Amino acid sequence: MGMQIRTKDASVPNYTLLLISISLATFMSALDGTIVNIALPTISEIFSLPMTSVSWVATIYLLVLTGCVLIFGKLADRIGFKIVFITGFFIFTLGSFACGFFPELFNSYGILIGSRIIQAIGGAMIVSIAPALVAAFFPMKMKGKALGLITMFAALGAAVGPVMGGMLTQYLSWNWIFYINLPVGCLAILLGMYSIPATPPALKTLSAFDRLGAVLVFIGIGFLIYAVSQGASVGWTNPHILGAAAISAIALISLLFHELRIPDPLIDFRLFTKRNFLIANLMLALTYFLFAGVNYILPFFLEIVRGLDPSRSGIILTALSGALMVSGILSGILINRYGNRRLCILGALIVSLGYLMFIIFSTDISISYIVLSLAVLGFGLGFLVSPGTNMIMGMASRDRHGMVSSLLNVERFGPMTLGISFVSMLFIQAIVSVGKYRNVTTSSPKDLVIDAVSTGFDLVFLVIFLISLAILALAILSKDEIHPDNMDSDEPVIVGV
């Protein structure tokens, strides 16, 4: 696929308003991923559902969003970023209203699930092109700072989601966890209409949109997310899980062969033949994989081993998000001076140090040490995620910005789901291996023997630390490459993908 040089638009975009628009998108995406979980018990009670059923309110959103994000990233390359972004926020806002209003009006849980699907489609359109907007419209000297701020808002959304969800559910009603999106969505639409340049599509082609690829990627990723997210609760040998895994494998293998045959693929797998592109993507995927697993298991450690109540555990965990916000901004400022690779190495070193500090967690470990460990980890993540994202987007040509941007989001949502399941399985197997404890996999965590549980945490933290060394190795092996499309006119060219 030929390289196309980005030309300047007739009007210089308002970078401040454009950055606010993109930040709102990442904030709402992260917020909506965490704000709903706290209200699930209330929704379960209102619709008289078991927790296994009500969990689909969260699962269906992740499944549809991850399955659609690559489709809309490619679509944005063909029809333009502005129309996809604004349409996405409109659908997301409409879906949010439907989630809050119609289910209780018609007393239908099915309507809630359908509304979440609509919301997820809009969410996929928004998040698929957020990094691409930075790569396409910001000058090189501003890209790092912009991505740093976006990382901060993503961390802020994830951090305040549970707190905001709890307050809205307790003091207003569960409906307001969706209504809160309405004013933000309307503001983002107005800002997007004004601030995003109406540039022509980056990819000018007469070939038809890859409909078969879109179907295969949705089936493959969707069934994979379903199998991984539900396997731990219903059993990995359950026929539904095995069937979903088989369908996913067939669809993804078919997708690979199909995409390699067509001239304008939905996902250009040839990108991964470029050594540096593959290394950088593996680095970020492993980072999200470990972070999600740790984020899932830490509340159990704090409440079971340390005996803390949920509210205090939640406050302690904000140390991670707070440090990530600070380092996200700082890394954005330093990218232009030190480059992406150096900051990634620094971030990977700090992340490994944070995971190393987790290894000595025990029943008598001090709260201050736990907070320090979380802050170290969060600080390292900010120095790893922002430069890593900037490195990957910088290697992509202008006509692949949407595709690569959406790929980054798949690498975030997919590995995070896999990371949670991996840590859960590792934790259970570690407890079982202690021996002479029966029915531990079916008992409530609070009923387990503390020594056995502590052993499980010890193994989990050790394995996570060892895997984090692979992230460090990948960061060392990476290189700073910038595609000519992403260079300002007065900067030297370092050829990328």
What does it look like?
The protein has about 500 residues and is mostly helical. The chain folds into 3 domains: about 15-195, MFS general substrate transporter like domains (Growth Hormone, Chain: A, Up-down Bundle); about 210-265, no CATH class; about 270-495, MFS general substrate transporter like domains (Growth Hormone, Chain: A). Helices cover about 75% and strands about 0% of the residues. It contains 18 helices and no strands. The protein has helices at about 15-35, 40-45, 50-55, 55-80, 80-105, 110-125, 130-135, 140-170, 175-180, 180-195, 210-235, 240-260, 275-305, 310-340, 340-360, 365-395, 400-435, 450-475. The protein is globular.
- List how many beta strands DSSP finds: 0
User: How far apart, in Å, are the first and last alpha carbons?
Assistant: 11 Å
Tally of domains: 3
CATH domain class name of the largest domain:
Mainly Alpha
Radius of gyration: 22 Å
Figure out the total of helices. 18
CATH architecture of the largest domain: Up-down Bundle
Low-confidence stretches: 1-10, 489-497
Round the mean pLDDT to the nearest integer and report it. 81
> What is the share of helical residues?
over 70%
Instruction: Give the SSE string.
Output: HHHHHHHHHHHHHHHHHH
From the spread of the alpha carbons, the general shape counts as: globular
SS-based structural class?
mainly alpha
Proportion of beta-strand residues: under 5%
CATH fold title of the largest domain: Growth Hormone, Chain: A
Query: Strand count, sense and closure of the main sheet?
Result: none
Can you identify the CATH superfamily of the largest domain? MFS general substrate transporter like domains
